[in-house]
Amino acid sequence: VNHLCNIQLSAGALSHLNNQHEFEFVESDVVDIQSRTRYMNVVDSYEGMALLLISQNKRGPERKRLLQMAINKFEISCRSNPSYAKSLYRWGLPLYYLFKETTEKSLLIEAIDKFQSSIKLKPSAAYWKKLCKCQLI
């Protein structure tokens, strides 16, 4: 219930809910209600983009840290809206740049997957260009 509706129930209410076929909610059963913003994925996507841009002026461990933070933001964005092609494409960018820093092949494979997924959702010349560049490596 908490994950689907952002409603946290009391421990007593949860135990009765799990053990009984019939259950009536009362106001005291609700501990907390949280709102969920419909387009929150855009905020995470733009935070990831800001981190990605900042990383371009850094070197070494600081750059890697910022790229990893950007990857995490894009992952959160895509989890909340998997059909947002821009976030998938943007998720591939820090993966690709991190691959260039570390030469860890799994990062390149994951970047290519993100670019391909974004192209499936929304064909774009920019998305194709980056995918082709990755596949030449």
Word description of this protein:
With about 140 residues, this protein is mainly alpha-helical. It is about 70% helix and about 5% strand. The protein has seven helices and two strands, in the order αβαβααααα. It has helices at about 1-5, 10-20, 40-55, 60-80, 85-100, 105-120, 125-135; strands at about 5-10, 30-35. A two-stranded antiparallel ribbon has the order 1-2. It is elongated and about 60 Å long.
Strand order, main sheet: write it out. 1-2
Name the poorly predicted regions. none
Structural class label:
mainly alpha
Rg over CA atoms, rounded to whole Å, is 20 Å
Tally of alpha and pi helices: 7
Shape: elongated
| Strand segment count | 2
The helix fraction, in percent, is: over 70%
Q: Whole-number average pLDDT?
A: 83
Q: What is the CA-CA span between the terminal residues?
A: 46 Å
Topology as H/E string?
Answer: HEHEHHHHH
Strand percent estimate: 5-15%
Q: What's the story with the biggest beta sheet?
A: 2 strands, antiparallel
